[in-house]
Amino acid sequence: MFAIYKRELRSYFITPIGYIFCGVFLLVSGLLFYQCTLAQQSMDSLNVYFLLLICVFAILIPLLTMKLLAEDRRSKTEQLLMTAPVSLTGMILGKYFAALTIYGCTFLVNAFNFVLLYRYGSPNTAAIFANILGVFLIGAAFVAIGLFLSSLTQNQLIAAVSSIGVIVAMLLLYLIGDAIPYAWLRSVLQWFSVLDRYIPFMNQSLSIPAVVYYISLAAVFVFLTVRVYDKRRWS
């Protein structure tokens, strides 16, 4: 698994994808940070910043994950990976953790923006850390979704567009749920809604069910990716 992890991690920086993701992420998040926090200087604006950052992930994370498996399938190198002395689970996890590392490190660098808040005031540290944890977990789940959809096609553009569509649909469940008159259906949608699960983090609370939900969501899509390759190996 570690060999696959290193290979994928290195591939992000011998192609433009890694640099584009990091650069665009830091640029957009920096502009949002200035507009939503430094300019406004309120807790409500901090929550708005993180919500907008999650929406940005809907486009940026598919850019990060679109090549993970689609490129191997297009270039016919997936056969080498499937016959390599590593389990399918190890192969998929290596690729997943490589993308998660790029995302996590870029997000960590972006988090240093909050040092500026302490220079100009006394922000709520608990609220900052709660939101950072929640947003990181959401991004980790989105990486797993992008990985799964990348396994279904050999076209990187299709992988990216389908990932954007699925992630946007999951985000829209938050708005759709409020518009549905049936309480039972609204409850079901809210249970699956990524943003509804994020609300406790916005309220400075560490929600264990939400943490379990995001980790489980990532685990389910990683598992489904393994099953896709398991089926392909024997077909």
Label the structural class.
mainly alpha
Give the ordered list of helices and strands.
Answer: HHHHHHHHHHHH
Radius of gyration: 19 Å
Proportion of residues in β-strands: under 5%
Q: Alpha-carbon distance between the termini?
A: 24 Å
Helix content percent band? over 70%
In terms of quaternary structure, the protein is single chain
For the report, how would you describe the main beta sheet?
none
Return the domain count.
1
Low-confidence stretches: none
Number of strands: 0
Number of helices: 12
Average predicted local confidence, pLDDT: 86
Morphology? globular
Features:
single chain; 235 residues; mainly alpha; 12 helices; 82% helix; 0% strand
Q: Can you give me a brief rundown of this structure?
A:
By secondary structure, the protein is mostly helical. It is built from twelve helices and no strands.
SSE diagram, text form:
Elements lengths: L1 H10 L4 H23 L4 H23 L4 H5 L3 H5 L5 H24 L3 H6 L4 H26 L5 H24 L3 H10 L1 H9 L5 H27 L1
Helix pairs in contact: 1-6, 2-3, 2-6, 3-8, 3-9, 6-8, 6-12, 8-9, 8-11, 8-12, 9-10, 11-12
Notes on the protein architecture:
α1 crosses α6 and α3 (43-65) runs antiparallel to α9 (156-179). The protein has 12 helices and no strands. The protein is globular. With 235 residues, it is an all-alpha fold. It has helices at 2-11, 16-38, 43-65, 70-74, 78-82, 88-111, 115-120, 125-150, 156-179, 183-192, 194-202, 208-234. The chain has one domain (2-234). The model has no long low-confidence stretch (mean pLDDT 86). The two termini are 24 Å apart.
